[in-house]
Amino acid sequence: MTTIDVSAPGPAKRRPLPGKTLFLLAFHATLSGAFLVSWLTGDEDTYGMHQFAGYTVLAALAVRLAAAWVAPSGPLRLPRPSAGAAMGWMARLLVGDPRARVQRSPLLAWMAMALLAVVGGAALTGAVADFATPVERLHEAVADWALAVVIAHLALVFALHALKTAAARRAVRLNRTESSVP
Ligand code: HEM
Ligand code: HEM
C-alpha cells in the first residue's frame, strides 16, 4: 500500500518523492472530507451538497486509480494484500515477537483495498441512483457498509499506533534497566 505512514521504523528505505507523498495526503484528505460530507447530507433537503460531495469522492478515486495506472510501482501503486503475510504477522504478534509490533502491518493493505472498494461502491451506486431511483436502496446499504469499514479503518490505525508506542516505551524501559545495572 502507500506511504502515508512515514514513521515506520526498520531498515533505511528509499524515501518516496515528496510530490507523491503530497499527492497521497491530498487524496486522503479529499476522500475523507468528501466521504464525511456525503454521509451527513444524504437527506433530500441537502441533496445538492450530497451530489457535490459524492461526485468529489468518485473523482478522487478516479484520480487515485489513474495515478496507480501511470505509476504502477513505488508509493502510488495500489495496495497488494497478502493473506500469508497477514496471517504470519498476526501469529508473530500473538507469540509476542517484539518486531511484529513495530513493523508495518500487512493488515493495512487489506484495509486500504476494502476502503477503496466499498467507498468506491458507495459513490458508484450513488451516481447510478441519481438517474435510477430503484438503486437508492442498494446505494444506502453500500453506504452503511462503507461507514462500517471506515470505522474499522480508524480503529486499526489507532490500534497499530498504540502498539508501536507501547513497544517504544518498553524498549526505553529495558534500556534504562540495562544501563543502571553496574
Ligand atoms: C481521522 C481519520 C483518519 C485517519 C487518522 C486516517 C489514517 C490513515 C493512515 C495512517 C493511512 C495510511 C495507512 C498505511 O500506512 O498504509 C490511511 C490510508 C487510507 N485511508 Fe485513512 N484515515 C482517516 C480517515 C479516512 C476516511 C474517512 C477514509 C475514507 C472515506 C479513509 C480512507 C483511506 C484509504 C482509501 C487509504 C489507503 C490510501 C491509498 O492506498 O491510497 N481514511 N488512512
Ligand atoms: C461515498 C459517497 C456517498 C455516500 C457515503 C453516500 C451516502 C448516502 C446515504 C447514507 C444516503 C441515505 C440517506 C438517508 O437515509 O436519509 C444516501 C442517499 C442518496 N444518495 Fe448518496 N452517498 C454517496 C454518494 C452519492 C452520489 C455520488 C450520488 C449521486 C448523486 C448519491 C445519490 C444519492 C441519492 C439519489 C440518495 C437517495 C436520496 C433520498 O432518498 O432522498 N450519493 N447517500
Unreliable runs: 5-10
Q: Please identify the structural class as seen in this structure.
A: mainly alpha
How are helices and strands ordered from N to C? HHHHHH
Overall radius of gyration: 20 Å
Percent of sequence in beta strands: under 5%
Bound compounds: protoporphyrin IX containing FE
Estimate the mean pLDDT confidence: 90
Q: How is the biggest beta sheet arranged?
A: none
Beta strands, count: 0
Number of helices: 6
Determine the fraction of residues in helical runs and give it as a percent range: over 70%
Could you give the distance between the termini? 46 Å
Number of domains: 1
Taken from the alpha-carbon principal axes, the silhouette is elongated
Describe the structure.
This protein is an all-alpha fold and 182 residues long. It has one domain. Helices cover 73% and strands 0% of the residues. The protein is built from 6 helices and no strands. It has helices spanning 18-40, 47-70, 83-94, 98-102, 107-129, 136-180. Helix 1 packs antiparallel against helix 2, helix 2 (47-70) packs across helix 5 (107-129) and helix 5 runs antiparallel to helix 6 (136-180). It is elongated, with a radius of gyration of 20 Å. One protoporphyrin IX containing FE binds at residues 1-2, 4-5, 24, 28, 31-32, 35, 64, 79, 108, 112, 115-116, 119, 150, 153-154, 157.
